[in-house]
């Protein structure tokens, strides 16, 4: 009986890496920066990060769960209506940087907080990470990438849809459950 109770209370412990949900979404956008001048919107490719963008509630919930690697030039862009967004690392296998941003206009966003090197968590009680104020975007990067790219509080970044992705007007403004 005690074994049954323990197994019911700790279902995450029974999950193996092979059974974790995972997804790799197509790259449909990029973020470049830091923006040094408001009128300058061209960047060398090395300053940009290719972004996967979840579009459904299920894609938002899975995020980067179960992924064993995230290249330094790739990330995931979570977009939502302005809110006090809270993220956790449950069932995430790799450390990440969480970059919390507030939208300035249709393309630009300002970094309000960076959680550097957030560690994976397999527990039922994982810590949560938030900006401490409402945000519109969160970008997840491989750990160390935000610092390497010079992304810190007050940094302005330029987001853009790739031409063949349908553009911002054709993508839903998903919310994270």
From TrEMBL:
At the top level of its lineage, which domain of life is listed? Answer: Bacteria
Against Gene3D superfamilies, the record matches this protein to:
Protein of unknown function DUF192
Q: Which residues form the signal peptide?
A: 1-18
Keywords, A to Z, come to: Signal
Q: Which is one Pfam family of this protein?
A: DUF192
Q: Which InterPro entries match?
A: DUF192 (IPR003795), Saro_0823-like_sf (IPR038695)
Q: Keyword Signal: yes or no?
A: yes
Specify whether Iron-sulfur is a keyword of the entry.
Answer: no
This chain's protein is named DUF192 domain-containing protein
